[in-house]
Amino acid sequence: MEKTDSVKLKGIEEIDQKKLVGFRVVCNDMTGYGQEIPKASQSLARRKGEIKHVVEPVKLIGAFKAAETSEEDDGYWVCFEVEKYEDIPEGMVTLTVPKEKRAVLQFRGHASEIFKVYSHLHEWIEENGYTRVPEKWTLEMYSSWTEHEDIVDLCDPVR
C-alpha cells in the first residue's frame, strides 16, 4: 500500500489511561481475526446500550499486544471506553490500558486493510529514533465503525 491521502502520520502522543468494556476475540490464526473482529464489533454496537458510563458511543476501540506476553493478554479486544466500571453486561470483559506514549497514524479506509498500514507506522517510528514496545497495548481508535470505510487512529506504544 502506497502512502496516500488515506494515511496521515500524526506523530507522538501521550494517550491517557483507557477503561474499556467489550468483547475479547481469541483465534488460533490470523485469518480468524479478520472474520471474528467484525462480528464482535457489530455485536458490541448492537449491545452498547447495555454498557454504563460510555465516554463516546460512536468511538470503538480495539486493543491488542503485538508481542506474546501471556495467555491473559492474548487476543483482540473490541470495546467502548467508559468513565468507570459498573454492572458489566453478561459476556463482556473489562480491560484497563495504562497511560502510554504512542506513535499515531491516522488511516482512512476499510478495516480489512489496516494491517497493511502498520508498516508505514513502524518505519516512521524507527526513522524518528523511537523504539516500539510490542509487549504493551496497541490501540486502534475508530471515529465510527462502518462496514465500508473507517477513520482509525493506529496508536503503537513507543519509548
Overview of the structural elements:
This protein is an alpha+beta fold and 159 residues long. The protein has one domain: Multidrug-efflux Transporter 1 Regulator Bmrr, Chain A, CATH 3.20.80. 20% of the residues lie in helices and 36% in strands. It has helices at 30-47, 114-127; strands at 7-15, 18-25, 60-65, 76-81, 93-97, 100-109, 137-142, 150-157. It has an eight-stranded antiparallel beta sheet with strand order 1-6-8-7-3-4-2-5. A hairpin with a 7-residue loop joins strand 7 and strand 8. It is globular. The chain starts with 6 loop residues before the first strand and ends with a strand.
Would you report the number of β strands?
Answer: 8
Briefly, what CATH class?
Alpha Beta
Widest beta sheet: strand line-up: 1-6-8-7-3-4-2-5
The radius of gyration computed from the alpha-carbon positions, rounded to a whole number of angstroms, is 15 Å
What are the secondary-structure elements, in order, as H or E?
EEHEEEEHEE
Sketch the major β-sheet: 8 strands, antiparallel
Helices and strands in order, then pairings?
Elements lengths: L6 E9 L2 E8 L4 H18 L12 E6 L10 E6 L11 E5 L2 E10 L4 H14 L9 E6 L7 E8 L2
Antiparallel strand pairs: 1-6, 2-4, 2-5, 3-4, 3-7, 6-8, 7-8
Offer a concise description of the structure.
This protein is α+β, with helices and mostly antiparallel strands.
Features:
single chain; 159 residues; alpha+beta; Multidrug-efflux Transporter 1 Regulator Bmrr, Chain A; 8-stranded antiparallel sheet; 8 strands; 36% strand
